[in-house]
Protein backbone atom coordinates (compact mmCIF):
# COMPACT_ATOMS: atom_id res chain seq x y z
CA UNK A 1 0.00 0.00 0.00
CA UNK A 2 2.89 2.33 0.79
CA UNK A 3 4.27 1.72 -2.68
CA UNK A 4 0.86 2.50 -4.22
CA UNK A 5 0.74 5.83 -2.39
CA UNK A 6 4.34 6.79 -3.14
CA UNK A 7 3.99 6.03 -6.87
CA UNK A 8 0.67 7.87 -7.09
CA UNK A 9 2.19 10.90 -5.36
CA UNK A 10 5.35 10.91 -7.44
CA UNK A 11 3.94 9.93 -10.84
CA UNK A 12 0.16 10.28 -10.71
CA UNK A 13 -2.92 8.13 -10.38
CA UNK A 14 -2.18 5.87 -13.37
CA UNK A 15 1.17 4.76 -11.93
CA UNK A 16 -0.44 4.05 -8.56
CA UNK A 17 -3.03 1.91 -10.34
CA UNK A 18 -0.26 0.00 -12.11
CA UNK A 19 1.25 -0.90 -8.73
CA UNK A 20 -2.26 -1.85 -7.55
CA UNK A 21 -2.65 -4.31 -10.41
CA UNK A 22 0.51 -6.25 -9.55
CA UNK A 23 -1.33 -8.92 -7.47
CA UNK A 24 -3.25 -9.91 -10.60
CA UNK A 25 0.10 -10.90 -12.12
CA UNK A 26 1.94 -12.28 -9.12
CA UNK A 27 -0.70 -14.01 -7.05
CA UNK A 28 -1.94 -16.62 -9.51
CA UNK A 29 1.43 -18.39 -9.70
CA UNK A 30 1.52 -18.23 -5.88
CA UNK A 31 -1.94 -19.78 -5.71
CA UNK A 32 -0.94 -22.68 -7.95
CA UNK A 33 2.41 -23.06 -6.20
CA UNK A 34 0.78 -23.08 -2.76
CA UNK A 35 -1.79 -25.65 -3.80
CA UNK A 36 0.95 -27.86 -5.24
CA UNK A 37 3.31 -27.46 -2.27
CA UNK A 38 0.56 -28.00 0.28
CA UNK A 39 0.06 -31.39 -1.29
CA UNK A 40 3.80 -32.16 -1.48
CA UNK A 41 5.53 -30.61 1.52
CA UNK A 42 4.39 -30.07 5.07
CA UNK A 43 7.26 -27.75 6.12
CA UNK A 44 7.69 -24.49 4.17
CA UNK A 45 9.60 -22.45 6.77
CA UNK A 46 12.85 -22.27 4.74
CA UNK A 47 10.95 -21.05 1.69
CA UNK A 48 9.07 -18.39 3.69
CA UNK A 49 12.30 -17.33 5.40
CA UNK A 50 14.05 -16.81 2.05
CA UNK A 51 11.12 -14.85 0.64
CA UNK A 52 10.91 -12.73 3.81
CA UNK A 53 14.62 -11.96 3.74
CA UNK A 54 14.59 -11.01 0.05
CA UNK A 55 11.53 -8.84 0.65
CA UNK A 56 13.26 -7.14 3.57
CA UNK A 57 16.29 -6.27 1.46
CA UNK A 58 14.13 -4.87 -1.33
CA UNK A 59 12.01 -2.82 1.10
CA UNK A 60 15.19 -1.37 2.65
CA UNK A 61 16.21 -0.31 -0.87
CA UNK A 62 12.80 1.32 -1.49
CA UNK A 63 13.01 3.11 1.86
CA UNK A 64 16.48 4.40 0.93
CA UNK A 65 15.05 5.73 -2.34
CA UNK A 66 12.26 7.49 -0.43
CA UNK A 67 14.77 9.15 1.90
CA UNK A 68 16.85 10.34 -1.07
CA UNK A 69 13.82 12.10 -2.55
CA UNK A 70 14.45 15.77 -3.12
CA UNK A 71 12.16 18.60 -4.07
CA UNK A 72 9.77 17.55 -6.80
CA UNK A 73 8.41 19.67 -9.62
CA UNK A 74 5.45 17.77 -11.04
CA UNK A 75 5.52 19.54 -14.38
CA UNK A 76 9.30 19.50 -14.94
CA UNK A 77 10.32 16.12 -13.55
CA UNK A 78 9.84 12.92 -15.43
CA UNK A 79 11.56 9.69 -14.67
CA UNK A 80 10.16 6.45 -16.06
CA UNK A 81 8.53 5.03 -12.94
CA UNK A 82 8.33 1.35 -13.99
CA UNK A 83 5.44 1.07 -11.53
CA UNK A 84 4.04 -2.24 -12.68
CA UNK A 85 7.48 -3.86 -12.67
CA UNK A 86 8.21 -2.47 -9.20
CA UNK A 87 4.81 -3.60 -7.91
CA UNK A 88 5.33 -7.09 -9.29
CA UNK A 89 8.79 -7.32 -7.73
CA UNK A 90 7.49 -6.15 -4.35
CA UNK A 91 4.65 -8.69 -4.47
CA UNK A 92 6.97 -11.55 -5.44
CA UNK A 93 9.25 -10.69 -2.52
CA UNK A 94 6.40 -10.14 -0.07
CA UNK A 95 5.75 -13.22 2.09
CA UNK A 96 2.19 -12.17 2.89
CA UNK A 97 0.58 -13.52 -0.32
CA UNK A 98 2.45 -16.79 0.23
CA UNK A 99 1.31 -16.94 3.85
CA UNK A 100 -2.27 -16.14 2.91
CA UNK A 101 -2.48 -18.66 0.09
CA UNK A 102 -0.58 -21.36 1.96
CA UNK A 103 -2.58 -21.04 5.17
CA UNK A 104 -6.01 -19.59 4.35
CA UNK A 105 -6.66 -18.96 0.68
CA UNK A 106 -5.81 -22.33 -0.88
CA UNK A 107 -7.76 -24.38 1.68
CA UNK A 108 -10.82 -22.15 1.12
CA UNK A 109 -10.31 -22.33 -2.64
CA UNK A 110 -9.99 -26.11 -2.59
CA UNK A 111 -13.07 -26.45 -0.39
CA UNK A 112 -15.02 -24.09 -2.65
CA UNK A 113 -13.91 -25.98 -5.73
CA UNK A 114 -15.11 -29.17 -4.06
CA UNK A 115 -18.59 -27.63 -4.03
CA UNK A 116 -18.43 -26.09 -7.52
CA UNK A 117 -16.08 -24.26 -9.85
CA UNK A 118 -18.39 -21.23 -9.63
CA UNK A 119 -17.96 -21.15 -5.85
CA UNK A 120 -14.15 -21.14 -6.18
CA UNK A 121 -14.30 -18.52 -8.95
CA UNK A 122 -16.56 -16.27 -6.86
CA UNK A 123 -14.12 -16.47 -3.95
CA UNK A 124 -11.22 -15.47 -6.21
CA UNK A 125 -13.22 -12.76 -7.95
CA UNK A 126 -14.49 -11.18 -4.75
CA UNK A 127 -11.02 -11.31 -3.18
CA UNK A 128 -9.38 -9.50 -6.08
CA UNK A 129 -12.18 -6.97 -6.58
CA UNK A 130 -11.73 -5.98 -2.93
CA UNK A 131 -7.90 -6.07 -2.96
CA UNK A 132 -7.28 -4.29 -6.26
CA UNK A 133 -10.31 -2.01 -5.89
CA UNK A 134 -9.14 -0.74 -2.52
CA UNK A 135 -5.62 -0.13 -3.78
CA UNK A 136 -6.90 1.69 -6.90
CA UNK A 137 -9.13 3.89 -4.73
CA UNK A 138 -6.17 4.81 -2.56
CA UNK A 139 -4.08 5.50 -5.68
CA UNK A 140 -6.83 7.82 -6.90
CA UNK A 141 -6.91 9.73 -3.61
CA UNK A 142 -3.12 10.00 -3.47
CA UNK A 143 -2.88 10.96 -7.14
CA UNK A 144 -5.48 13.71 -6.68
CA UNK A 145 -3.67 15.12 -3.65
CA UNK A 146 -0.23 15.20 -5.25
CA UNK A 147 -0.75 18.74 -6.54
CA UNK A 148 -1.26 19.91 -2.96
CA UNK A 149 1.99 18.33 -1.87
CA UNK A 150 4.81 20.50 -3.13
CA UNK A 151 8.18 21.39 -1.71
CA UNK A 152 8.66 20.42 1.91
CA UNK A 153 5.24 18.78 2.18
CA UNK A 154 6.20 16.34 -0.59
CA UNK A 155 9.63 15.66 0.90
CA UNK A 156 8.13 15.05 4.35
CA UNK A 157 5.47 12.74 2.92
CA UNK A 158 8.05 10.70 0.98
CA UNK A 159 10.27 10.44 4.05
CA UNK A 160 7.31 9.34 6.16
CA UNK A 161 6.61 6.67 3.55
CA UNK A 162 10.31 5.75 3.75
CA UNK A 163 9.96 5.27 7.52
CA UNK A 164 6.95 3.02 6.94
CA UNK A 165 8.94 1.02 4.38
CA UNK A 166 11.77 0.65 6.93
CA UNK A 167 9.29 -0.64 9.50
CA UNK A 168 7.93 -3.17 7.02
CA UNK A 169 11.47 -4.16 6.02
CA UNK A 170 12.32 -4.77 9.69
CA UNK A 171 9.15 -6.81 10.11
CA UNK A 172 10.02 -8.94 7.08
CA UNK A 173 13.56 -9.45 8.42
CA UNK A 174 12.14 -10.45 11.82
CA UNK A 175 9.81 -12.90 10.06
CA UNK A 176 12.75 -14.38 8.14
CA UNK A 177 14.54 -15.01 11.44
CA UNK A 178 11.36 -16.41 12.97
CA UNK A 179 10.93 -18.94 10.16
CA UNK A 180 14.54 -20.02 10.62
CA UNK A 181 14.06 -20.36 14.39
CA UNK A 182 10.99 -22.52 13.84
CA UNK A 183 13.28 -24.99 12.10
CA UNK A 184 15.84 -24.71 14.91
CA UNK A 185 18.48 -23.02 12.74
CA UNK A 186 18.48 -19.85 14.86
CA UNK A 187 18.35 -20.14 18.63
The shape, in one word, is flat
Query: Would you report the number of β strands?
Result: 0
Structural class by helix and strand composition: mainly alpha
The major β-sheet equals:
none
How many separate helices? 8
Quaternary organisation of the protein chains: single chain
Order of helices and strands: HHHHHHHH
> How much of the sequence is in beta strands?
under 5%
List keywords for this structure.
187 residues; mainly alpha
Model description:
With 187 residues, this protein is an all-alpha fold. Helices cover 81% and strands 0% of the residues. The protein has eight helices and no strands. It has helices at 2-11, 13-20, 22-40, 45-67, 83-92, 95-115, 117-145, 152-182. Helix 4 packs antiparallel against helix 8 (152-182). The longest helix is centred in the C-terminal third of the chain and has 31 residues, at 152-182. Mean pLDDT is 79; it is low at 73-77.
Outline:
This protein has 187 residues and is mostly helical. It has eight helices and no strands.
